[in-house]
Inverse folding.
């Protein structure tokens, strides 16, 4: 199954490849202050593949806060945050915004709340290594 998504203006887009037999997609609402202010709901798949295309890199900001172990990719043109990335053990991993996905029926989403406030840095990185998308490619310039 391929899930397409993008920021509102399309400057940052993605294709997330999941197991075609999948019948539901996890949708985790994070309670950190950044995610709460953005209404962020994230999904990932430790067996998935993600291709991100950035049309104009000059219109993308990267924001890190707290432990500074994740970069939120923000489109400067429309303000949407379609993904976050983290380098774990030398490998780029990612989560994508459920709200940025297109053509995914609500009935496929398995919504839950998430709270990671008590994690230390090592626990946080270990969780991302287990759960975030491990095969991430970022292509700039739309090619």
């Amino acid at each position: 199954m391929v899930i397409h998504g993008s920021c509102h203006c399309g400057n940052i887009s993605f294709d997330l490849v999941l197991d075609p037999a999948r019948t539901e997609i996890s949708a985790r609402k994070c309670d950190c202050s950044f995610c709460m202010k953005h209404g962020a709901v994230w999904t990932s798949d430790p067996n998935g593949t993600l291709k991100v295309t950035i049309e104009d890199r000059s219109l993308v900001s990267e924001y890190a806060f707290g432990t500074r172990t994740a970069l939120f990719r923000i489109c400067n043109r429309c303000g949407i945050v379609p993904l976050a990335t983290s380098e774990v053990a030398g490998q780029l991993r990612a989560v994508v915004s459920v709200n940025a996905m297109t053509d995914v029926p609500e009935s496929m989403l398995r919504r839950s709340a998430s709270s990671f406030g008590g994690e230390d840095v090592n626990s946080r990185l270990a969780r991302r290594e287990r759960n975030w998308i491990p095969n991430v490619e970022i292509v700039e310039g739309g090619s």
Notes: Helices lie at 33-38, 121-131. The longest strand covers residues 91-97. The chain has two helices and eleven strands.
